[in-house]
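Hi R.,

Here's the input for the benzoic acid complex you asked about:
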Amino acid sequence: MATLRLGDEAPDFTAETTAGKINLYEYLGDGWGILFSHPKDFTPVCTTELGYMARLNDEFAKRNTKVLAVSVDPLDSHEKWLGDIEETQGQAVNYPVIADPDRTVADLYDMIHPNASDTMTVRSVFIIGADKKIKLMITYPASTGRNFDEILRVLDSLQLTAKYQVATPVNWKDGEDVIITTAVSDEDAKGKFPKGWKTLKPYLRVTPQPNK
Ligand code: BEZ
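And here is the predicted structure with benzoic acid in place:
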């Protein structure tokens, strides 16, 4: 198994999920995707994470992005646990959860880190672009719940920077000023960024977010 890196093609797979059999590429269509692993069903941190992700699902849908969770637990376990998530988090899980007992998906995406645990996946998140390339990977330990608002923030940055020759500064949020990339000359920037920009250094030019 090759190590996955940013820019690599996201490995395709077909898997059983709580929404029936899903092929990743067909499921994503021409949109973006979030694939995230949780270590184990019926555990507290995972319960909060899957509930919160369900609350955010409309925001991902607005960004043409589909969500998909995975763990190495089997389907009947997932189905029983989803009831607990709805009961305790006040939100039904509204995206498919992959059952991966034979670890096909976990192995393809290198989600089992044996020195952390032989049996459970770590908390991985992959953002997959519309071109099926991996745009972001993060890895958290089992004991720390992720910040899914951050995933949404990064998705906004990725979708913006895919369209415009900009980069987003520290702690940027959708709607805030962005940075013109150094590949754009001042001459070209006049046409591309008609709202103008501030030059703090020749390599640091700040402009209002172009699509707002
Ligand atoms: C949890 O989700 O709470 C959890 C899962 C596996 C190990 C530790 C915590």
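One thing worth noting: The chain has a mean pLDDT of 97.

Cheers,
M.
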